[in-house]
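Moderator note: this is an archived Q&A kept for reference. The question asked for a predicted structure of one protein chain; the sequence and the answer are reproduced below.
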Amino acid sequence: MADQWRRAASIIVLFFFFFFDFAVQQQQQIFQTSWQERLSLIQLRSSLGIRARDWPVKSDPCASWRGIQCFNGSVTAINVAGFRRTRQGNLNPQFSVDALRNLTRLSSFNASNFALPGRIPAWLGLQLNALKVFDVRSSWISGDIPITLGNLSSLTELYLSDNNLTGVIPASLSQLLRISVLDLSGNSLTGSIPSGFGRLSMLQTLNLSGNALSSSIPPQLGNLSRLVDLDLGFNSLSGALPIEFRNLTSLQRMILGDNLIAGELPDDLFPRLTRLQSLVLRRNRFSGDLPHVVWSIPTLELLDVSGNMFTGMLPNVGSNAVAATALANISWNLFYGNVTPAIARFGFVDISGNYFEGSVPIFARGGGNASLVKNCLRNTPSQRGVAECASFYADRNLVFDNFGNPNPAQPPPPGSKKKSNSSTIIYASVFGGVGLLLLVFVLILIVVVAWKRRSGASNQRGISVGPVPPGGSPSPPGLPSNLSTVGDAFTYQQILQMTGEFNNENLIKRGRTGDFFDGVLEGGLMVVVKRIELNSSSVKKESSYMSELDLFSKITHPRLVPFLGHCLLNENEKFLVYKRMPNGDLSSALFKKMTSGDGLKSLDWITRLKIAIGAAEGLSYLHHECSPPLVHRDVQASSILLDDRYEVRLGSLGGVCAQEGDSHQNRITRLLRLPQSSEQGISGNANASCAYDVYCFGKVLLELVTGKLGISSNSSSSADPAVKEWLDKTLPYISIYDKELVTNIIDPSLIIDEDLLEEVWAMSIVARSCLNPRPARRPLMRYILKALENPLKVVREEHGGSSTRLRTASSRSSWNAAAVFGSWRHSSSDVAAAPAVLSRRGVEPAGSFKQSVTTTGSQGSGHIGDGNGVSPSSRRNSKEIFPEPVEEDRENDRG
């Protein structure tokens, strides 16, 4: 019995030792694998500057490190999204992730909102074969997208948005056949969309918005039957919308706004898109009817087709129940007719800027859920004029309801003639008496105003912002009562830390009102610090910075440079802090040195037009949306700042002031105004008028067209003889009759096709209009903005009834590009200058321009004579092509 117990005990001991040895071997093997990956993670911790509290060295990464996931001892996911770097890591952050090479089972890497300045390494697409999710949104990445990313065959989600990526989209990404999310938005990518994307059959989200992509949309994208979210907005895509998009039956969001897409929408494009929730086509060049089937999509909650040329009538269909937050924006198109129940299904609607007639629908009465301005609706404020509405309907052979009044174009009702004579007598008597009273009142007003002006009284409008006029005494600054509300209040020590104690290496430039330095906030945000040194003779500088603070306390707009804060603690020095614009200003960005070699890289035309539109938006806001109108007074290339996407932010705001000269006064006040010089306001300040800004902006446009730097840097229109001589030689090449002339002055580095040449030609015409020596003849900035947004309207005259449209469009209450920018006239000296310049350069003038010099006209037959430089044949209906100035302009000319 004892032997049996001894034998059993021996067996148990042997089994125990065998099991223990096996467990130790397995543990050693696991430990060895984990140890190798642990070393890689420690290297990654060092290269990225991960804090010890997030990745403690003495603990197990798989068990306690934040954002680390493992499986069987191998790292499968790393998530450092939003992590804060160590202080040492913030000094030199880089895209340093070489340690990832050893993590062969890594399937997810998320570093969104974690600074990784630098390029994505090419090896990443060759060695991380198990990677499924790669997310580096908002990580400050730059450079090209490596073509090797196309080798990540397991990749299902790729997020590269909101970085500084450049170059083209690699065609190799078309090899990612398993990908479901592809987000490249918010970068500076150029070129076209790869047609191979049509092979990505698993793709559900495609976001390429906010880049500089051009060319047309590849029709192959219509093969993406699983696509749910498509966003191509804020690019420069052109061409027509592919009919193949009708196959996107799973699509819920189609965002194509802010492009150059043109043409009509086919009727059979939308019937199969029954899941569509958002349709955004705003600010393109679409024309024709909006298909009626769009209004019947049952799931549609956002419809934005504003800023196109859609026309036609709304369908007469009943409304469907939708959420109260649903929005329809069809503003600034050419829709007409009655407002039908089709639009009542939306909780908020914007139909402004069209030609709808009739009564205001019930759902839009007395509430804030509809915008109706600039239509032809009855009993509604801020509508278009009768003449404009009647002309629009007449051009289309339609009957206008004349705001519910009898239409003079229709025969009068029976029996109305009997009452007409007595009514005419009564009305004539009443209006005659009222007219006599008005005449007496005007005469009295003229005497009173003339007496006040002789006694030296000034009717100058108060200026709430801006420096003191030269030679005048300083006015009360009028600063906000609490400066702490105008941005952040920085300490002097913070200012020193931002700028490296104003190291000369950080000096950007020395301006008239202060010196500008590069700086960095503690969080890594790049800023510009303006240092204003004050002394007994620096009244202008003090007025400038106080006016600038006052300005930022009262207005805000995305086209103005972002103001971050100030430091006013030092008595002799003041500091203003702005967000730094990565692409500098226009004067430095128009031509840039290439990364390799000594050559220069020129901005393409699409970017130049985008910059012109952005600057015009900012100036239009100051001129027309501020009360009183504000004048920038320093419009030049160095004042036009550019962010990472070449969006414009206006700088140099220290000289902004309220407009002098009362150009927005009513007509009676203008009639009573005494004569003044062409540029001066009442105070004698030559540049305190919106017309001055327009002149300076014209020189900026010429810089964009010609590539000639320094034209706009001279603030005076005639102070620099070299600039004046250059303008005298250049302007004759800009003719509204001959497109080819402008090719003699276009920047040679621009590569443009025939369509783009028309846009360059149009911008040149706008520039010449801005440079009219008579301020009253210069176009308003809001008209300049519309012309730049639709440049082809400036040079292409519409067919069919165009003369009527041009006549009615010459009034200030409406806008027509051909009317506004055709209104500058060739004087005999202007026209004669062109052949002289051309002959010196050995260029033969084009026929239409040459003809305009040699013709003669009759003064007695209604034709404008040869003094205007245009032949009778080319000047038929001359007042329509070059309309006479409207009444306000004539009054300004007399003044």
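Archived answer notes: The mean pLDDT is 77.
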